[in-house]
Amino acid sequence: MYTKAFHGISGLLSLALHNNNISFLERGLFSNLNQLTTLLLQDNQLSIISPGTFDELVSLTYIDLSKNQLKYESLPRAFLRRSTRLRHVYLDDNRLKMIGSCILASRSSHTASRTLSLLGNPINCDCSLRWLLRLRFNSLPFENYCYFTTHFTISLLILGCSSSYR
């Protein structure tokens, strides 16, 4: 997708790019969309998210990256860190075998409930996911895991595990 595809439309609030066979998002693609609240990228062929791709999306509240080819290794650490208003993250039906404790961290002072959906991923349910339970019950000190802190709770954690360990 052309890097300057969205320049000149800075007031855009919602962007639907689902089902477009998009395989790569260049850094800077969304650099002019600081008012965007909803980004729909499901049903594409995304296999990697470049560091900084979503950094300018400071007003984002909803992102759907479901039904792509994303793996844990292809998601940069804290790739949504600047989206401090983010409340709904959908990563369903990708190839995620794990999810790191910093991947969705942000500098948020909001205590509003959030949704993180990981259905349909081959997640290995083991002790590496303890941070999700602690986060759900508001007891995870993110500063021990990340280079910044966050304060939020997850009201609904939708997690499909591939192993029998639960």
Briefly summarize what is shown:
With 166 residues, the protein is mainly beta. Helices cover 4% and strands 14% of the residues. The protein has one domain: Leucine-rich repeat, LRR (right-handed beta-alpha superhelix) (Alpha-Beta Horseshoe), CATH 3.80.10.
Q: In the CATH hierarchy, what is the architecture at level 2? A: Alpha-Beta Horseshoe
Strand order of the largest sheet: 1-2-3-4-5-6
Backbone structural class? mainly beta
At the fourth level of CATH, the homologous superfamily is Ribonuclease Inhibitor
Give the helix tally: 1
DSSP strand tally: 6
What gap, in angstroms, lies between the N and C termini?
Answer: 40 Å
Structural notes for this entry:
The structure is a single chain. The chain has 166 residues and is mainly beta. It has a single domain, classed as Leucine-rich repeat, LRR (right-handed beta-alpha superhelix) (Alpha-Beta Horseshoe). The protein is 4% helix and 14% strand. It has a six-stranded parallel beta sheet, covered by helices on one side. It is globular, with a radius of gyration of 15 Å. About 14% of the residues have low confidence.
Task: Provide the descriptors you would attach to this structure in a database record.
Leucine-rich repeat, LRR (right-handed beta-alpha superhelix), six-stranded parallel β-sheet, 14% strand, 6 strands, globular
Outline the fold blueprint.
Elements: E1 14-16, E2 38-40, E3 62-64, E4 88-90, E5 113-117, H1 130-136, E6 153-158
